[in-house]
From TrEMBL, chain A:
Pathway: Pyrimidine metabolism; UMP biosynthesis via de novo pathway; (S)-dihydroorotate from bicarbonate: step 2/3. NCBIfam families: asp_carb_tr, PRK00856.1. It catalyses: carbamoyl phosphate + L-aspartate = N-carbamoyl-L-aspartate + phosphate + H(+). Keywords: Pyrimidine biosynthesis, Transferase. Its EC number is 2.1.3.2. This is Aspartate carbamoyltransferase. GO terms for biological process: 'de novo' pyrimidine nucleobase biosynthetic process; 'de novo' UMP biosynthetic process; amino acid metabolic process. Residues 6-148 form the Aspartate/ornithine carbamoyltransferase carbamoyl-P binding domain.
Automatic annotation (TrEMBL), chain B:
CDD domains: DHOase_IIa (cd01317). Gene3D superfamilies: Metal-dependent hydrolases (3.20.20.140), Urease, subunit C, domain 1 (2.30.40.10). This is Dihydroorotase. Residues 343-421 form the Amidohydrolase domain. One of its GO terms (molecular function) is metal ion binding. It comes from the Bacteria. Coiled coil: none annotated. Keywords: Pyrimidine biosynthesis, Zinc.
Amino acid sequence: MTFRARHLLGIETLHPIEITSVLDLADEYVALNRASVKHSDTLAGLTQINMFFENSTRTQASFELAGKRLGADVMNMQMQASSIKKGETLIDTALTLNAMHPDLLVVRHPHSGAVDLLAQKVNCAVLNAGDGRHEHPTQALLDALTIRRAKGRLHRLNIAICGDIAHSRVARSNILLLGKMENRVRLVGPPTLVPSGAADWGVEVYDDMAEGLADCDVVMMLRLQKERMDGGFIPSEREYYHRFGLDAAKLAHAKEDAIVMHPGPMNRGVEIDGTIADDINRSVIQEQVEMGVAVRMAAMDLLARNLRAAREAGDD
Amino acid sequence: MSDLTLTNARLIDPEAGTETLGTLTVKNGLIASVVAGDTRAEGALDCGGKVLAPGIVDIGVKICEPGERHKESFRTAGMAAAAGGVTTMVTRADTLPAIDTPETLEFVTRRASEDSPVRIAPMAALTKQRAGREMVEIGFLQDAGAVAFSDGDTVTTDTKVLSRAFTYTRSMGALVIAHPQEPGLSKGGAVTSGKFASLKGLPAVSPMAERMGLDRDIALVEMTGVKYHADQITTRRALPALERAKRNGFDVTAGTSIHHLTLNLLDVGDYRTFFKVKPPLRSETDRLAVVEAVSAGVIDTISSMHTPQDEESKRLPFEEAASGAVGLETFLPAALRLYHAGLLSLPQLFRAMALNPSRRLGLPGGRLEVGAPADLVLFDPDAPFVLDRFALRSKSKNTPFDGQRMEGKVIGTWVGGKRVFER
């Protein structure tokens, strides 16, 4: 098991071996989560604080459950409600929190790079639960685990990531991870929602679903982030659904056994047809949620091991 | 008998484009003679073959008085300027409140003469409160000593307001300095668009916004005949428009910043906010094109765009952090990177850093000729050092060059024949 990182801030700095280590351990936690007694004492005595500067139900619940199943003391802080409104800076919040001696800090923030900044100021392990449009590493890891379990491998697959790529941190982390594991990644979306310079990322870019999905093993849909749009990226939702929404006709261009993924929450009838999302032969959307808890348990376990080792070595 | 004799100096004459070993004498604050060859006189200061050049005239220095004196004052900026070989700071009007009345301008002039060891040539705002709605009292401000009119990096979006301000300013013969940027396209942009910005997930602006802003401004120059200077041209695609305007005989000049000449967008790295400037750092292709434009004389001036920001304004997520970098003390060593790289000669550098800014603003300095003010800088272009930001004289330490190896140390600075810095 090789995992050197002190924090999990993004996929960019992870080595493929570290990614495999997380996924291997997560496989073990999937088994634990399916057992009748879903508890271990791996993180017993450690304090985990979930700091969410942006609304989240699913990710926060997933991290909370992961921590509790591993025996950590978990606290949730809704940051919008408290200090930001009082004008406290991110650094001050970090220092205040650091004084409470947390061991694991799970942070989501609306600005890219904010979690990196915070990690520089605290002496515990920091997990990025999404920063702006930058990265969302645990989502990419849970997607990777889902693919590996469904396809039996995580290399040499044709994977299409479709929709609002420009505003998506999920897309960035997935592009990095899937690229590192040597898959062929395609981005499919209207040009206004594909970031400039994407063609230089070592991916193929398409603005047509039929071409983009041709011969794909995995179709990953993204949420059309309406709340992020400051106006006018697409003409209308219905035109978007017509051209880029995943329905049976478009999915027919992919391989017969292609799986369909979505990080949730879904806009049914905007980026994905309801019947596709619910098709248990194609959709692995529920599995993604399950893998989410396991991957977060694995990541926190590995970071806690490094944290304990560093403390024993007297680094802190 | 002269007041000061500097001998055995490598004299940089930006006007003639020459460098010669020789002697310079000063009398009554003016340059009294410039003689080639080694004419050692008694009581002369032996420069040891180091470079003697006209003092730098820096257009666009922000001194945070009035309003934000905790970031920079006339005293600290003046000391930084003296240590950096800057003998005239052309100050910006984007203070709090903006310098938009003769009364606030008088405050600046008074504070400057009390506290700054180097000269101050103040700019005034073009519109009241820099809000882009009504023009300032251009005539009164000119009488009070404003050398140019500029709203800093705020773009006047209302073209009608701007065209009237240009027309009125033209009748006074005054210079307008603008920030060419299409405001709609560049709204919210923290970095230049492209692969890097997308990977880092930062809001980005296309470099094309600069060309669009410049195109609009040049059209207004054609319409009104105003004397116009673009504060910072930083992209390759804006250059043809600038060249064309000059060829067509419009009274247009342009500057660029030392940061855009020596850094590129990748320097931002992992969200390093000290590299956040306005406009944002550009690609390496753009950087080299702009260096080439300075060399060819398409871009006329280089500025430090000295913008002090305290730690609190910079220690924030990149999108939220303030823009700007301090530059007075690092201006010369950064510029010498271009000299050491063989891209620009010393006369070319001092043409852009001293002579051209002086000429454009109608100031007497910026040249090594008899009768010009004895504003001088003596420096060793090869002396190496590692920059420590906490050693800077500015109150704010937000330099992108912290920890970097640089070459070029100022040995002495003179303003009107009076030594204001000595190492």
